[in-house]
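User: Hello! My lab partner asked me to get a predicted holo structure for this protein. The small molecule is zinc ion, SMILES included with the sequence. Please write out the structure tokens.
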Amino acid sequence: MGLGYRNFFSAPVPIGGVFPAYLPTIPSLRSIPNRQISFSAYQRRFRSRLERLHSVMQGFCHPLRGKGYLSQGNRGPTHRGRMEYAYDFSTPIGTPVYAMRSGRVIGIQEQYADVGGTKIQAQKANFVWLEHTHGIGSAYTHLQRNFGKKISIRRNDWVKAGQLIGYSGNSGWSSAPHLHVEVHRIANQSFGQTLPFSISSGCGSEKPT
Ligand SMILES: [Zn+2]
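Assistant: Hello! Below are the structure tokens for the protein in complex with zinc ion.
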């Protein structure tokens, strides 16, 4: 992508820029009559709010290239606390998953079975974890067992926005096959607080080079 590690990672987004005091909460899908809606319909509904996000938090790529239905939005039943700005997309096991922004692979877990489960299975979720600019990362969770063998993705690989990085599954704390995505601060080598973000049909401000 033509950027070295040192240049690529710029200063963290100021928290006030991401969470301006006037940014309203994006409501839970419980306030939407039909819980299974497309992500684009969801974004249209809350467009005026999403447009107020910091520019760094806009223009992500759709992780399923438009497939799937939004089954849980921000501040839904299990998207609380650290995960409050996550999204869940219901989609069959084996759906291709794409990087929402260019970045570096900093974590892969793929050994767990696609059997779903309750909260006690939370640590048995397969995932890809990417690091982007501005101190933020993205995670793609509940992936299919051994997804990495199909695409040979490895830790420390660089991926472009929109690049295939895995396949959806039903591992971990999951009541049905779906993809959980989030954008978060990277804090002490771990998943930090999630941040609100929006997805653009043009697939991102960081175009693949
Ligand atoms: Zn989720």
